[in-house]
Specification:
33% of the residues lie in helices and 28% in strands. By secondary structure, it is an alpha/beta fold. It has a domain of 63 residues. The strands form two sheets. Strands 6-7-8-3-9-10 form a six-stranded mixed beta sheet, with helices on both faces. It has a four-stranded antiparallel beta sheet with strand order 2-1-4-5, covered by helices on one side. Strand 7, helix 6 and strand 8 form a beta-alpha-beta unit. The radius of gyration is 17 Å and the shape is globular. It starts with a strand and ends with a helix.
Length: 235
């Protein structure tokens, strides 16, 4: 499988503080690639750098031959990358339908795209007229993912999608990620909950101090679980 997205030697800063130090990794076609690491390791910053929300001082980010670091941030989604930030960032006063409409506008998609995401998250179909701020946490996460998927992306960036969710909702989010992989969507997934992602991930990269210190297959990780203790600090 070829790489659909490649980060090569990325340096990024918040002000004078360097957060990413020569970060390199790739996302292959139709895979779920999980970024694991302690808080502050640079995982979220990596996603923001891809989206152009954090400037890249040096290095390149390339998607299917297009160098994203040359694009203004509003152009990045138009290359087929959808981003679901941590905390969901929904428009709480707007209905579910209105939030989805905003997603459709980003790439000029229509009814067919909306139908596809409602098939993936049927609960939302029953909630279309409901204000998104009144949804449960799990339903809000589904809506955030659905809104992003209205772009009809081939790359999805997910930042801690299972944070604060009950096990039943974690399973539904995981099921949605697996369904998207079956449709050929490549997902770069930031998580703290190792148990939530290992059943659906293909590869895992351990991020430490803004560097990719190791990338392994999930099969290798299951055989060497001490890597999780070493880099993430949980057993």
């Amino acid at each position: 499988m070829g790489a659909v997205l490649t980060l090569d030697g990325i340096d990024s800063f918040y002000g004078a503080v360097q957060v990413l130090h020569g970060l390199s990794l790739d996302l292959r076609e139709g895979e779920v690639h999980c970024l694991l690491g302690r808080n502050g390791a640079g995982k979220t910053t990596a996603l923001k750098a891809i989206m152009g929300l954090v400037p890249v001082r040096s290095g390149t980010i390339v998607k299917n031959g297009t160098e994203l670091t040359r694009l203004p941030p509003h152009q990045v989604p138009k290359t087929g990358i959808a981003y679901v930030p941590q905390g969901r960032r929904l428009f709480a006063e707007l209905t579910v339908a209105e939030n989805l409409e905003i997603g459709l506008m980003a790439r000029g998609k229509g009814v067919a795209a909306r139908e596809r995401v409602l098939e993936l998250f049927p609960t939302l179909r029953e909630r279309l007229r409901q204000r998104s701020g009144t949804l449960s946490g799990g339903e809000q996460q589904m809506l955030a993912m659905a809104r992003a998927l209205c772009l009809e992306p081939d790359v999805l960036l997910l930042d801690e999608p299972t944070e604060g969710l009950m096990p039943s909702m974690v399973a539904r989010i995981r099921g949605a990620v697996a369904a998207l992989r079956a449709e050929g969507v490549s997902t770069l997934l930031v998580e703290q909950r190792v148990d939530a992602v290992l059943p659906v991930a293909d590869r895992v990269s351990f991020i430490e101090n803004g560097r990719n210190v190791d990338t392994v297959s999930v099969e290798d990780l299951r055989e060497n679980p001490e890597m999780i203790r070493r880099y993430v600090g949980v057993s």
